[in-house]
């Protein structure tokens, strides 16, 4: 057998093992190897049944995503190897049983569905996550799942893409059995026992594709598909693949299998050739790329983190404490008064209760986690902490005071992390005896929900401290991105011009709602002004004051947010900001604010005009790109994809547009540059093109080209 697929025997059962670490993807040679093994076993009279199993930690986790570029360019046929394998399995005259542990995802589940039976460990998951890559299950998942699980379950799995548990799969007839035990060995033993039962029972070979009884009828299915389309539109707004995935499931219920298969192939290629799929695949690999730090190898030494401590039980400190507790790490939570401490604990409890209500956590999970959060008013309990996170007010002097205290209160090898969102990590580190142990771990609010973690590298931060912080991020299921030390690091540094342009636009006559709507139609999770209300206009005001940046003379400054601040309109927290907030913080336009803005503009002599969505989007998004180019040139971000990942996970940029830098490459840097020159001519200073952007535009290159040339 090929080294990718091994065959062994257990009595009269052939065991076919996929050996393609780390996730047994269906890379070239794997489908062919499985097919050859099954054909050989089928021809061997001493073989009565077959088991298909993955080596290592998982069953087949899908097609090899790295092959899609070759399919898109025509270098490889779609589904080469995979499609013939499905028929080899399903038409095999002897029973083939898929033995599933880990994750049977995408093509992996589709291969399992082409087998005659499927058994799994209780810990296994199955799913069709293809829509997360901007494609749809192209190897029969949309056609076989409804025949086993019914139309509604199949449509949801294929259109939303979330995995389901083994129990849920068993309940929906996707699995035939969950075997005892939790190891791969117990899975194999359980599957062999299952095979023996099948042989004793006549070794039947039911083909899923022949089973139409669960396909329902058009009248019953119509509302199911309508509901699923609406759900897909809501959960995967603006994305094409989920809708086409439902088209394919619907075809399975309306036409013969082969016809539906041909239609699905067409739909699959339409998706694969879409910019959305290219962007989503860029994001898939980007989430993994950002873990790689050129001068900190992935096998670098890390420090053991068994105990943590947090200074500050405010919104951020409490949320950060929850992250540690959720990762199973006991965490001391310190405040300056019992009242502040109790307020913080109450907020944590409320957050957990909300998660229990939403079914995200069980009550016992919450009890265990709350037990891990140990309140304190003193630094005494910090002596054995392996890491301390400072999460006090965004004020440099206060932070320095805390770090001086931590220098005394902690053991020398403890990591000292600041949660500052904008301030100079080197300046904070400068008050400690050993700045090599100081790093930034910038969580995003709400810290217990947002997955982005900016890990801020100080000039003197030790490499094992960086490696430990990145590893800790993964333990917390965060997407950690290493960033350099400058005001606002990557995310907030780019957010400043983005919010400035939003204010400029309304001061030039754009309607507040139109600015947010244009960007939400572009795909942003929330418009910039609504974000300003969410984050707090007072917070932004304090950060501006704290930064104290001298602004160049005669340069236009945004006026609106200062005006709102002075009016006490801080946003959601005060029930009014850019918008008015009613029940459940539902926002509605506030004519008073539009009047205030118009007065401001009149006093500033700003000509009012109608501004269309195109200009709103270009000014907001290209200012992100321009600042991102500066950040790249200064080395504050390691790669363009790091900026993309920060904006996807921290600021709600649409993943199906890949991130600001990927989007600019897709538009074409020449066009972006020319548009920026137009804005510079109209608006001056703030639109000075970043030198890197100007250079790449002149050379007709992309940010990806620039990155490739540097790797
Ligand atoms: N193809 C190629 N490489 C993959 C891969 C895949 N399907 N899945 C993971 N990798 C790489 C990943 O880039 C990383 O590489 C390493 O494996 C470990 O991954 C026909 C067309 C399975 C839950 O979408 O969800 O089938 O960074 O860090 O956290 O209809 O990987 O080490 O160099 O994520 O333990 C459908 C995608 C494909 C599953 C494991 N399948 N993978 O998570 O490890 S499309 C998927 C995952 C398809 C069919 C269609 C996760 C995982 P490196 P990791 P993990």
Q: What would you note in describing this structure?
A:
The chain has 711 residues and is an alpha/beta fold. Helices cover 50% and strands 11% of the residues. The protein has 30 helices and 19 strands. The strands form four sheets. It has an eight-stranded mixed sheet, with helices on both faces. Strands 1-2-3-4-6-9 form a six-stranded mixed sheet, sandwiched between helices. A three-stranded mixed sheet has the order 5-7-8. Helix 13 links the parallel strand 10 (308-311) and strand 11. It is globular and about 90 Å long. The two termini are 37 Å apart. The protein binds (2S,3S)-3-hydroxy-2-methylbutanoyl-COA. The site of (2S,3S)-3-hydroxy-2-methylbutanoyl-COA has 25 residues, from strand 5, helix 4 and helix 12.
Task: Give a short summary of the structure.
The protein is an alpha/beta fold and 711 residues long.
Question: What is the secondary structure topology, with strand pairs?
Answer:
Elements: E1 5-10, E2 13-18, H1 30-43, E3 49-54, H2 68-72, H3 82-90, E4 96-100, E5 103-105, H4 107-114, E6 117-121, E7 125-127, H5 141-149, H6 151-160, E8 164-165, H7 166-171, E9 177-179, H8 184-200, H9 218-235, H10 241-254, H11 257-272, H12 275-289, E10 308-311, H13 315-326, E11 331-334, H14 338-357, H15 363-372, E12 373-376, E13 387-390, H16 396-409, E14 415-418, H17 425-429, E15 438-443, E16 452-456, H18 463-475, E17 479-483, H19 491-507, H20 512-522, H21 528-535, H22 537-547, H23 560-566, E18 579-581, E19 587-589, H24 591-603, H25 613-633, H26 640-651, H27 660-667, H28 669-683, H29 691-698, H30 703-710
Parallel strand pairs: 2-3, 3-4, 4-6, 5-7, 6-9, 10-11, 10-13, 11-12, 13-14, 14-15, 16-17
Antiparallel strand pairs: 1-2, 7-8, 15-16, 18-19
The structure holds (2S,3S)-3-hydroxy-2-methylbutanoyl-COA.
(2S,3S)-3-hydroxy-2-methylbutanoyl-COA binds at residues 22-23, 25, 61-66, 82, 103, 105-107, 110, 129-130, 133, 135, 137-139, 141, 285, 288.
């Amino acid at each position: 057998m090929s080294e990718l697929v091994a065959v062994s025997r257990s009595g009269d059962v052939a065991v076919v093992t996929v050996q393609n670490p780390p996730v047994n993807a269906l890379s070239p040679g794997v489908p062919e190897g499985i097919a050859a093994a099954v054909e050989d076993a089928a021809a061997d009279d001493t073989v009565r049944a077959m088991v298909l199993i993955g080596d290592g930690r998982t069953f087949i986790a899908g097609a090899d995503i790295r092959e899609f570029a070759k399919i898109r360019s025509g270098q490889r046929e779609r589904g080469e190897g995979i499609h013939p394998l499905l028929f080899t399995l399903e038409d095999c005259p002897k029973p083939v049983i898929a033995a599933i542990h880990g994750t049977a995802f995408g093509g992996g589940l589709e291969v399992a569905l082409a087998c005659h039976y499927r058994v799994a460990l209780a810990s296994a998951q199955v799913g069709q996550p293809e829509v997360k890559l901007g494609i749809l299950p192209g190897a029969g998942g949309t056609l076989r799942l409804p025949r086993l699980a019914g139309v509604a379950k199949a449509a949801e799995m294929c259109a939303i893409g979330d995995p389901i548990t083994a129990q849920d799969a068993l309940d929906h007839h996707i699995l035939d059995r969950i075997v005892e035990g939790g190891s791969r060995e117990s899975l194999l033993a359980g599957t062999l026992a299952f095979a023996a039962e099948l042989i004793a029972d006549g070794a039947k070979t039911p083909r899923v594709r022949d089973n139409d009884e669960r396909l329902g009828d058009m009248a019953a299915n119509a509302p199911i598909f309508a509901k699923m389309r609406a759900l897909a539109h809501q959960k995967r707004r603006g994305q094409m693949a989920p809708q086409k995935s439902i088209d394919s499931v619907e075809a399975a219920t309306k036409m013969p299998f082969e016809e539906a298969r041909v239609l699905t192939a067409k739909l699959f290629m339409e998706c694969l050739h879409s910019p959305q799929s290219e962007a989503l695949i860029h994001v898939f690999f980007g989430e993994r790329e950002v873990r790689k730090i050129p001068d900190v190898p992935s096998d670098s030494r890390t420090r053991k983190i068994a105990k943590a401590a947090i200074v500050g039980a405010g919104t951020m400190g409490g949320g950060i404490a929850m992250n540690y507790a959720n990762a199973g790490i006991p965490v001391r939570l310190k405040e300056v008064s019992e009242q502040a401490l109790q307020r913080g604990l109450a907020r944590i409890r409320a957050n957990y209760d909300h998660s229990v209500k939403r079914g995200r956590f069980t009550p016992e999970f919450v009890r265990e986690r709350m037990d891990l959060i140990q309140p304190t008013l003193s630094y005494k309990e910090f002596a054995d902490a392996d890491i301390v996170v400072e999460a006090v007010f965004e004020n440099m002097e206060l932070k320095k005071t805390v770090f001086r205290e931590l220098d005394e209160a902690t053991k020398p090898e403890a990591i000292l992390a600041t949660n500052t969102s904008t301030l100079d990590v080197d300046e904070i580190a400068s008050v400690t005896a050993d700045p090599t142990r100081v790093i930034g771990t910038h969580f995003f609010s709400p810290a217990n929900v947002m997955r982005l973690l900016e890990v801020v590298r100080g000039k003197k931060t030790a490499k094992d401290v960086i490696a430990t912080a990145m590893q800790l991020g993964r333990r917390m299921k965060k997407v950690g991105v290493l960033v350099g030390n400058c005001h606002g690091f990557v995310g907030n540094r780019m957010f400043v011009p983005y919010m400035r342009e939003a204010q400029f636009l309304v001061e030039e006559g754009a309607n507040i709602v139109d600015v947010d709507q244009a960007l939400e139609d572009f795909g942003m999770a929330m418009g910039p002004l609504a974000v300003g209300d969410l984050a707090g206009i007072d917070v932004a005001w304090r950060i501006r004051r704290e930064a104290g940046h001298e602004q160049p003379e005669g340069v236009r400054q945004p006026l609106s947010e200062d005006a709102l601040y002075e009016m006490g309109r801080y946003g959601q927290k005060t029930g009014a900001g850019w918008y008015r907030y009613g029940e459940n913080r539902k926002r509605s336009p506030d004519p008073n604010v539009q009047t205030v803005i118009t007065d401001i503009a009149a006093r500033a002599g700003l000509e009012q005009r109608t501004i269309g969505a195109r200009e709103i989007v270009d000014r907001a998004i290209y200012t992100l790109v321009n600042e991102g180019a500066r950040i790249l040139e200064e080395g504050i971000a390691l790669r363009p994809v790091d900026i993309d990942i920060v904006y996807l996970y921290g600021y709600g940029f649409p993943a199906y547009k890949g991130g600001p830098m990927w989007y600019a490459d897709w538009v074409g840097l020449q066009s972006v540059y020319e548009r920026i020159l137009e804005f510079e001519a109209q608006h001056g200073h703030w639109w000075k093109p970043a030198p890197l952007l100007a250079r790449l535009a002149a050379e007709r290159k992309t940010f990806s080209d620039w990155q490739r040339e540097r790797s």
